[in-house]
Write a structure and sequence with these properties.
This protein is mainly alpha-helical and about 575 residues long. The protein folds into two domains: about 375 residues, no CATH class; about 140 residues, Serine Threonine Protein Phosphatase 5, Tetratricopeptide repeat, CATH 1.25.40. Helix 6 crosses helix 10, helix 8 crosses helix 17 and helix 21 packs antiparallel against helix 22. The radius of gyration is 28 Å and the shape is globular.
Length: about 575
């Protein structure tokens, strides 16, 4: 080894910091300091997403923030803690999301800043920066390589599938907020392994409490702790008592969360269709869908067509399943000699498993890859930095590959995030990605109607009717738009059509209510009463129904019954405050 090579080796310490050795540090040496590279990485992430600060509220933001009565006062906190995420709504929705911290986070931003969308978006970017830094620290602890850690953190934060978790405020309030504390609880666990200080158990437990209250998937953190412990201890059974010191309190948090969740929401499994066979047959298709979006994140959308395999065949189950097993087995074989690689392999499948299992219930979404993508980012970063070192010795080639990957990610995020600027751009892009889906077209119809563009709204409605003529939502939307434009005869025709289609009985409550309103406006009190009582039978806990029925009864001179309906309405309203 030459003197120059020895000097270079001396310059780089085990932690990646550089020594001056009595001479000025060159620009290259300064840039290759890990603390500098981390700051540069965070700057790149910030500059890539900072344009979202100018974006508006979109999609569910309107309901969750602008139309949410719980946002009006801190006195609503008890309701936030004891109801599901959408518990403030008047209409029926399946209670499957218990995320009180997400709502409290949004409430805090609204109260502290005044509620302008820019502040919400700025906090979304801030959350991503924290998660990016945590991803860097975790990777460095797992692999001991700061270069891989920096590149992995960049690829993790800048993967285009992150767009909906950053540019969309509601997505950030669950994904990124939970992600911050998910990584924090694992980092506290690793710190406890290093120091065996009790305080790190406390930090791990506290972080897990916050993480699970923001999103359900954080319950997997203790599972990953257990897997990491088992893989990295020579005699895990002998030291099980030591590991129990951190596993038991974290496990207690998960059990406590599940009990509270069950108390608030009831049995989640009872709300899931008993179609376990279809879930199994659909698994390969869903897996390949997520693999595709991981490897080729182009043409992303807020909506995707649901997938479901009712009958397994060679083409839709056997062949994709076999290829998937071979691919997963091949990657496992490559990871076999590295404990860190095996841990990340488990991380990927563990964090993706809930989505795969619930594939026919939960809509496909890029943001469900939030945690799983971390394992992929680390694997890609390690391959770029160290893959084929025996054959590829040129450092510039590795550096160029890393820069090219990061650049592609920045371009991808910039392209995919522009559609989240406003609702119209968002749903127009969704119509292009999934042209045979009626939901984005119905959203566009409402938006065009609000802008006074009735022609554009009707065009989207007609397209929706072609896609699914037996959808209550399609006819209900058409009736509502005609009603808002005071074309009552067309509205009545659409609502009656909604009542006739073979759809879920409860879904027709809004149409029955609107038919009651139309009859009330025409002073046809008997038919109005019939429709309103039907709507109440479908949705007995919806606000406004009993109040409207009371008006009808008063017009019929039935004062006692009207008073009783008012009392029921008051009780329902009180329960939602």
């Amino acid at each position: 080894m030459t003197t120059a090579e020895k000097t270079k080796r001396e310059l780089e310490s085990e932690t990646g910091t550089w020594k001056t050795l009595g001479r000025p540090v060159s620009l290259r040496e300064w840039l290759l300091r890990p603390e500098v590279m981390v700051r540069l990485a965070l700057t790149v992430v910030f500059l890539t997403y900072v344009r979202t600060v100018l974006f508006d509220f979109v999609f569910d933001d309107h309901l969750l923030i602008l139309m949410n009565p719980w946002m009006e006062s801190w006195r609503s906190v008890p309701h936030v803690l004891t109801h599901d995420l959408w518990g403030f709504q008047n209409f029926h929705a399946a209670k499957i999301y218990y995320r009180p911290l997400s709502l409290l986070w949004l409430m805090a931003i609204e109260k502290l800043t005044g509620g302008a969308p820019g502040w919400f978006h700025l906090m979304s970017v801030a959350l991503l920066l924290v998660v990016t830094l945590e991803a860097y620290v975790l990777t460095r602890k797992l692999l001991g390589d700061w270069k891989v850690a920096v590149l992995a953190a960049l690829l993790f934060a800048l993967h285009p599938t992150k767009v909906s978790s950053v540019a969309w405020i509601s997505g950030s309030a669950s994904d990124s907020l939970s992600g911050v504390f998910f990584f924090a609880t694992l980092l506290a666990y690793l710190k406890w392994r290093e120091t065996h200080r009790t305080r790190w158990i406390g930090w791990s437990v506290a972080a897990l409490v916050v993480a699970v209250l923001a999103k359900e998937t954080a319950v997997l953190a203790p599972v990953l702790m257990a897997v990491h412990w088992w893989m990295n201890e020579e005699n895990p059974w002998r030291k099980m008592k030591e590991f129990a010191a951190i596993l038991v309190p974290n496990g207690a948090v998960v059990c406590g969360y599940l009990l509270v969740r069950h108390w608030v929401l009831g049995s989640t499994l009872s709300k899931i269709p008993a179609q376990w066979g279809m879930m199994l047959w659909t698994l390969p298709t869903v897996c390949w869908w997520y693999v595709k979006h991981l490897t080729w994140p182009v043409g992303l959308s807020v909506y995707y067509q649901r997938v479901g395999v009712a009958r397994p065949t060679v083409g839709n189950f056997v062949l994709p399943g076999v290829v998937l097993v071979v691919l997963a087995g091949g990657i496992l074989w490559l990871c076999r000699k590295s404990k860190a690689a095996l841990f990340l392999y488990v991380w990927f499948w563990a964090t993706l498993a809930p989505v795969l299992i619930m594939s026919i219930v939960v809509q496909l979404a890029d943001r469900y890859l939030y945690l799983a993508e971390y394992a992929v980012a680390v694997g890609v970063a390690y391959t770029v930095i160290h893959g084929g070192e025996k054959w590829i010795t040129a450092g510039w080639l590795r550096t160029g590959t890393a820069i090219a990957l990061v650049t592609l990610c920045v371009v991808g995020v910039t392209k995919e995030s522009k559609y989240w600027d406003d609702d119209i751009a968002l749903f127009q892009e969704a119509c292009k990605v999934v042209p045979m889906m009626e939901q984005p077209r119905l959203q566009l119809a409402y938006l065009y109607s609000d802008q006074g563009n009735l022609g554009g709204a009707i065009q989207e409605l007609k397209e929706s009717e072609k896609i699914n003529p037996n959808s209550v939502r399609v006819w209900e939307t058409e009736g509502t738009i005609y009603y808002e434009h005071r074309n009552f005869s067309a509205a009545r025709k659409a609502f009656l059509r909604a009542m006739e289609v073979p759809d879920v009985y409860r879904a027709k409550a809004a149409s029955a209510f609107n038919l009651g309103l139309l009859d009330l406006g025409e002073k046809k009190y008997k038919p109005a009463e019939t429709w309103l009582r039907l709507a109440i039978a479908m949705e007995p806990q919806s606000t406004g129904l009993h109040k409207t029925l009371a008006i009808v009864l008063r017009n019929e001179g039935r004062m006692q019954e009207a008073t009783e309906e008012d009392a029921i309405e008051a009780k329902i309203q009180k329960s939602r405050r």
